[in-house]
Amino acid sequence: MHRQNRRFVRLASVLTATAASVGAAAIAAGPVGADGVRTPSAHPARTVSLNETGRLHLVSKHGFTLNELGAASGTIKGRIAVHLKIVSTSRVTAEVTISPRGGSLSGSGTATYHKGETEATFSGRLSISRRSGTYSHAQGSGLRFSGTIARSNDAITVHVTGRLSY
Predict the structure, then answer these.
(1) Distance in angstroms (rounded) separating the CA atoms of residues 116 and 114
(2) In this predicted model, what pLDDT tens digit does every residue of 75-94 receive, in sequence order?
(3) C-alpha span between 53 and 157 (Å, rounded)
(4) Are 83 and 94 in contact (CB under 8 A)?
(5) DSSP per residue over 101-165, as a string?
(6) Rounded to whole angstroms, what are the CA distances from 38 to 19, 26, 30, 35?
(7) Theoretical Cys-Cys bridge with 95: which of 1, 32, 82, 83, CB 3.0 to 4.6 Å?
(8) Contact, 95 vs 115, CB < 8 A?
């Protein structure tokens, strides 16, 4: 075999081996999108139907804002905190944080508000705004929250429902 041909064969085999190892590394690292950016590989998600109930007590009150703490029971058990602000005679905003073992989930939303003689009620939609730990990749769908505020002591009972994947 001619000397130049042997160099070409060696160079071709080195290039082939390099291409094969780069290809194997790319496959092992995960898929690349059309823009050349590596896309995260899918994590198996657990999906649950949320049906949480929290019974809370007033921690502080500033004007029309109630800060409450309590325990959540239901699908995900843990500590629950609610920051509820009455923004008008018919509307409230809220941030609900559930802190089970291994992480936390916070959702924020707006709701209708009705003031009765002994209690006020609220009902609205919620979207996940913060997550950590076990729930760091959590996504919710159809999340709703509702509840009551006892006018005698401002204690809140809150219900959170919907679907959660994490």
Answers:
(1) 6
(2) 999 999 999 999 999 999 99
(3) 7
(4) yes
(5) TTEEEEEEEEEEEEE-SSEEEEEEEEEEEEEEETTTT-EEEEEEEEEEEETTT--EEEEEEEEEE
(6) 19, 9, 7, 9
(7) 83
(8) no
